[in-house]
Specification:
Strand order of the largest sheet: 2-1-7-10-9
Strand content: 35-45%
Order of helices and strands: HEEEEEEEEEEEEH
Number of helices: 2
Largest sheet: 5 strands, antiparallel
Length: 183
């Protein structure tokens, strides 16, 4: 009887660990993004994209420069695809907002592959379902990119099939143990 409890405990722990590790962050989620400035409001966007995915040319930013925004499961890459875009100075916030309704962000950092000069950790913020990048007084030149590494919890994530099978195996083991106990 003690051996059965140990086996069940091991199977249950594996099943729970597998379900917990199966969650994704952005994959399959709709990301709303828009450019905003304090006192001005939204001046470009909003654009809705399913992650992973790319906004090939972000609309409404500048007449001289174009941006593309690419989402993977845990990164956002903002690339100056051509031209130069200078962001006006003097705003508390003048940049891009990313909003993902089913994600609670717990971290956002600047990836080492970023090449946007002057963008520092204080320009990046996260709160609840939003990540913001403040470009006030910065200039994107053609080829500059900003890569954001994200962490958080996806509240809509579903377990992978292998996790469900492992969970099922744990439940079947529990059934056998209970049946044996009664006999």
């Amino acid at each position: 009887m003690k051996k059965n409890r140990i086996v069940f405990g091991i199977l249950s722990a594996l099943a729970l660990a597998s379900v917990a590790s199966a969650s994704t962050l952005l994959t399959g989620e709709t990301v709303e993004s828009y450019f905003d400035a304090t006192g001005v409001g939204i001046y470009a966007g909003p654009v809705y994209t399913l992650a992973p995915g790319t906004i090939a040319s972000y609309p409404g930013i500048s007449t001289s420069g174009t941006f593309s925004v690419t989402y993977t499961d845990n990164t956002i890459t903002i690339l100056s695809a051509g031209g130069t875009t200078s962001f006006s100075s003097g705003y508390t916030f003048n940049g891009i907002v990313f909003d993902v309704p089913n994600v609670t962000f717990t971290g956002a950092t600047i990836d080492g592959s970023s090449t946007l000069s002057g963008f520092v950790a204080g320009d990046l913020a996260f709160s609840g379902q939003q990540v913001t990048a403040n470009f006030d007084a910065l200039t994107f030149n053609s080829g500059n990119q900003l890569v954001l590494d994200l962490s958080g919890t996806n509240t809509s994530a579903t377990p992978e099939p292998a996790s469900l099978i492992l969970t099922g195996a744990g439940l079947v083991a529990l059934g056998f143990i209970r049946r044996r106990r009664r006999a």
